[in-house]
Amino acid sequence: MEKPDINSLIVRAKASVNQNTIQKVVPVKEKSTEVQFSFYIEKELLKKLKLKALENDCSNKQIIIDLLTDYLNQN
User: Fold this and answer.
1) Inter-axis angle of helices 60-72 and 43-55, to 10 degrees?
2) 40-53, pLDDT tens digit by residue?
3) Are 60 and 70 a contacting pair, CB within 8 Å?
4) H-helix or E-strand spanning residue 43
5) How far is Cα 50 from Cα 58, in angstroms, rounded to an integer?
6) What would the pLDDT profile of 6-29 be if each residue is shown by its tens digit?
């Protein structure tokens, strides 16, 4: 089996490059004021949190934010 000439392969690859733009990258204009925060909690507490979120038709995140806000606004 004959080895292909690497230079001719490179020339063919460059020639066959698709010139059509497939995806346009647009920078995000607004920066989020949120940051990621992770912590460990007991499994049973997480289950209760999820059930409460389902009962109130809201997210776990929203419950935690509301609780933290109320706690920090005391006194």
Assistant:
1) 100
2) 999 999 999 999 99
3) no
4) helix 43-55
5) 9
6) 888 888 877 776 667 677 888 877
Sign of the C-alpha dihedral, residues 21, 27, 28, 34? positive
**What are the residue ranges spanned by the domains of the chain?**
39-75
Quote the tokens at residue 16.
């066959």
- Which residues, in sequence order, are CB contacts of 50 under 8 Å at separation 6+? 60
Dist. CA 57–CA 25, nearest whole Å = 35
Tell me which DSSP letter residue 13 carries. Answer: H
Which range (3-17, 45-59, 61-75) has the least confidence? 3-17
State how far the Cα of 68 lies from the Cα of 62, in Å rounded to an integer. 10
